């Protein structure tokens, strides 16, 4: 977008995430289970990207007595897969501290494994949810002294509500490590169906994790369309280092092609904290909205970030964004940019930065954007056979479900898509 800026003297900082080291001009040190390997090299504490290949070089010049340096970041994903991640360090720890049940026992073997970062929302087939056992209550001890339990049952409520559930878990002989897992399926006479899983664990080193997953089928109360919603929450924390992370993923689909996806992530890696939010919305008729906002900061008070947004329909739309950096003494650098796509091959590009650079031009350029989600209604229906197969309680003749829609208008943050 702009002419290359002059380079400065670089102070090297290498950050390896997932392979287990952070080098800040000192010896390497191990880190706790941060999946998704990236190779990052920057002259100052720099923002860690989201797995896409990014190359950029920017100058931030302030009062030379305060701060003067160049900023270069090169982020390379280890795979072209959008959620690629190497085997987590959590796994080896769990295998060490979570004893499996002896083959000769009838106790459950732990299916739990610590979650990996940036793996999105798994399909129901990957969870292995088995609700075939009912009214089970058993426990036992393995040969190594570790214990286990398994329970299952059914809860009944009003309006045809039924919840079938299975709980299982275990712990080492000294109680320093444990695992828990719960599966459930819910239904009622309104057509609501739900599958869910919750897993958690802790090892002898104090490392802990929690992961939940839900898949819901229901009829939208405003459009009367069938909707499927999926969500996942994942978090992990080191017991010995100042390292941890959290992710909240969500996906919503309806039978006319309306789709909404998003994620909210944050974490801590030694002296740095980071956050990331992104979202996608497709109205099923060609209109698309996408956005991303990422930012991070160090313990010294240095902050940096990057955000962008794009809106398109029928080849006409816009893109805009900002990259910024703030020093501990409140000096701030930023570069803003924008694009207007007219649908006729002409694109207006403009931008400026706090260092005085600017550009404003019209170019011949073919506009490209994704008008349809790569994973939509047909895909999620095909992957939700167990959700659809949930059998509700039999509804007596003449009994109708209580359809309480609340207020006459939907709340602002839950407005139905425009048709």
From TrEMBL:
Residues 101-122, 132-151, 390-419 are annotated as: Disordered. Residues 113-122 have a biased composition (Basic and acidic residues). Keywords: Chloroplast, Plastid, Transit peptide. The keyword Iron does not apply. GO terms for molecular function: starch binding. Its main location: plastid. It comes from the Eukaryota. GO terms for biological process: regulation of starch metabolic process; starch metabolic process. It is found in: Plastid, Chloroplast stroma. The keyword Cell wall biogenesis/degradation does not apply. Residues 132-145 have a biased composition (Polar residues). One of its GO terms (cellular component) is starch grain. Belongs to the ESV1 family. This is Inactive purple acid phosphatase-like protein. It comes from Anisodus tanguticus. The lineage of its organism: Eukaryota, Viridiplantae, Streptophyta, Embryophyta, Tracheophyta.
């Amino acid at each position: 977008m702009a002419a290359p800026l002059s380079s400065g003297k670089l102070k090297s900082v290498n950050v390896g995430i997932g392979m287990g080291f952070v080098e800040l001009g000192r010896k390497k040190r191990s880190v706790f289970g941060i999946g998704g390997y990236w190779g990052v090299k920057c002259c100052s504490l720099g923002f860690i990207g989201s797995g896409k290949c990014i190359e950029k070089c920017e100058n931030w010049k302030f009062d030379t007595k305060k701060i003067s340096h160049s900023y270069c970041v090169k982020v390379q994903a280890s795979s072209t897969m959008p959620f690629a991640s190497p085997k987590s360090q959590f796994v080896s720890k769990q295998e060490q501290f979570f004893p499996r049940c002896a083959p000769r026992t009838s106790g459950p073997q732990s299916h739990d494994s610590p979650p990996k970062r940036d793996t999105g929302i798994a399909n129901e087939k990957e969870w292995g949810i088995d609700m075939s056992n009912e009214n089970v209550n058993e426990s036992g001890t393995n040969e190594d002294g570790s214990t286990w339990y398994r329970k299952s049952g059914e809860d009944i409520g009003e309006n045809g509500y039924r919840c079938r559930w299975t709980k299982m878990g275990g712990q080492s002989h000294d109680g320093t490590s444990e695992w828990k897992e719960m599966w459930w399926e819910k239904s009622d006479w309104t057509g609501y169906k739900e599958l869910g899983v919750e897993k958690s664990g802790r090892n002898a080193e104090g490392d802990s994790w929690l992961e939940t997953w839900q898949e819901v089928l229901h009829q939208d109360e405003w459009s009367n369309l069938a909707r499927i919603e999926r969500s996942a929450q994942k978090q992990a924390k080191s017991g010995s280092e100042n390292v941890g992370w959290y992710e909240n993923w969500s996906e919503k689909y309806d039978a006319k092609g309306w789709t909404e996806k998003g994620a909210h992530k944050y974490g801590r890696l030694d002296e740095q904290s980071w956050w990331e939010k992104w979202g996608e919305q497709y109205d099923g008729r060609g209109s698309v909205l996408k956005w991303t906002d990422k930012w991070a900061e160090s313990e010294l008070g240095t902050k940096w970030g990057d955000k962008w947004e794009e809106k398109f329909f029928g080849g006409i739309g816009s893109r805009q964004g900002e990259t910024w950096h703030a020093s501990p003494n409140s000096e701030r650098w930023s570069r803003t940019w924008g694009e207007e796509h007219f649908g006729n091959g002409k694109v207006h590009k403009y931008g400026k930065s706090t260092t005085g650079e600017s550009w404003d031009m019209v170019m011949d350029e073919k506009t490209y954007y994704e008008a349809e989600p790569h994973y939509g209604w047909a895909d999620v229906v095909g992957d939700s056979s167990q959700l659809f197969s949930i059998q509700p309680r039999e509804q007596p003749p003449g009994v109708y479900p209580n359809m309480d829609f609340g207020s006459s208008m939907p709340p602002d943050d839950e407005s139905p898509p425009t048709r």
